[in-house]
Amino acid sequence: MNVSLRNLKLVNVIVKEGSVTKAADKLFLSQPALSHQLKKLEEELGLKVFNRLNKKLILTEVGQVLFANSEKMLASMNQLNSELDAIKMGKKKNIRLTTECYTCYHWLPNVVREFRQEHPKINVKIDIEATKEPLEYLIEGKIDLAIVSTKSSHPSIHFEPLVTDEMVVILSKDNELSTQKTINLTDLINQDLILYDIPEEKNYVLTSILHNNVGFVRTIQKAQLTEAIIELVSANLGISVMAKWSVVPFLNHKNLEIIPFDLNVGKRDWYIASLNKISNIENSFVDAVKKHFNESLLKV
């Protein structure tokens, strides 16, 4: 037979209360009803759970096994109910998140660290593996939040505006375009563009700035690391397009200029993607991300 949680609770309460009468009161049952349930359990097991000696109930070997396991199972159920109540009240203690952009790992760990210091009971975990397919991981329930710049039409995903940043052209001070105030896409015709080595359909510069028209530039090269791109650009071996906040830390140490696009090109919206309504504690983390961005943009 399959022993139910109800059966385990029945045995557990009888043992702890010391009598059927007290156990019946604890379980809000009549004494005959509880005795009937116990008799039915023993009949289904084909074994006695209690020996009755001088009006006392003594656990048999089977009863001891049931009671020991009931302690574990009921404790687990109590923990489960507490965690579910915490989630319902917006007090969940775990946040699993990722971002679609590897450059975000230049700042995201610091935000997590500071958040943990302010909320030591909240475990925030960054799922780096999910970066390659953040929305897929979200739909599969493997993460709670995803920081993305591209919205999906999936009906189950909720997108909340996070921040807006700016993509700018970075180039060497020796580049012929370095004295311009703004850059038009047509200015790039003789430039070698260096981009991150990621799938083209996920490359924001290709899809949202160049609109997949590679004819705007002379050539396109790819590199995996921000530092590698910075070194190549600084040596005037090409130009790149990056988020303004990601380039600023290098400006004082490299032979670089940053120039904005004209006509409002390069403005990029970021979103927090989730499957459910964001909990109170998740919203606190979102506020921490917004604060970081706002402070970073003020320094730019």
From TrEMBL:
Keyword RNA-binding: no
Keywords: DNA-binding, Transcription, Transcription regulation
PROSITE patterns: HTH_LYSR
Limits of the HTH lysR-type domain: 1-60
Domain of life, per lineage: Bacteria
Cited SUPFAM superfamilies: Periplasmic binding protein-like II, Winged helix' DNA-binding domain
Extent of the signal sequence: none
Pfam family membership, one: LysR_substrate
GO MF annotations in UniProt: DNA-binding transcription factor activity; transcription cis-regulatory region binding
Similarity annotation: Belongs to the LysR transcriptional regulatory family.
PANTHER family: HTH-TYPE TRANSCRIPTIONAL REGULATOR, HTH-TYPE TRANSCRIPTIONAL REGULATOR METR
Name recorded for this polypeptide: HTH lysR-type domain-containing protein
Annotated source species: Aquimarina aggregata
